[in-house]
Amino acid sequence: xxxxxxxxxxxxxxxxxxxxxxxxxxxxxxxxxxxxxxxxxxxxxxxxxxxxxxxxxxxxxxxxxxxxxxxxxxxxxxxxxxxxxxxxxxxxxxxxxxxxxxxxxxxxxxxxxxxxxxxxxxxxxxxxxxxxxxxxxxxxxxxxxxxxxxxxxxxxxxxxx
Length: 161
What we know:
Blueprint: H1 11-14, E1 24-25, H2 33-46, E2 51-52, E3 57-58, E4 61-63, E5 67-68, E6 78-79, E7 82-86, E8 89-94, H3 102-110, E9 115-119, H4 128-148, E10 151-155
Parallel strand pairs: 1-2, 8-9, 9-10
Antiparallel strand pairs: 3-4, 4-7, 5-6, 7-8
Helix pairs in contact: 3-4
C-alpha cells in the first residue's frame, strides 16, 4: 500500500527490492476512483508502469477477468483472481471474493484447482433479514468448493458462521 495502516505492508519498505520484478495489477478500466488512485500512487512510488493482469497468462501464472467483490449484479468493486500452476498442481488466490457469487466459484472449479485461498464474507455487515439468505448462499458456495478442491482455506470469515 502507498499509505498503509499499521497492519499493511507499505510500498516504501519494498520498492527497492521489487525494482526488477514484473508486477501485474488490475487495470483502471471500470474501477472506482479510489482503486485508480491507489494504482497511480503505487506506480509513482516504484517508478514504473504496472502491467494489466486481466485475462493474462504468463508462463505458470494466469489471471481472471474482473469478478465482483461480493455478489454479481450489486454495485461493487471488482477483483482479479490469480492462479499459479507448477508440477501439475494449481493454486488459486481469490482475495475478496467473499464466496457470494456462484460464477466466481465456477471459474475456480473450471481452472481445475487443487488449492484455494479465498476471503470469506463480512457477514456482520448484513441485516438480520438478508443475513440468513447470504449465509446460506455462502455456505453452499463454500461446500461446492470444498467438495471439488483438495485444499480450501477461507480467511476473514467470522467464527459464528
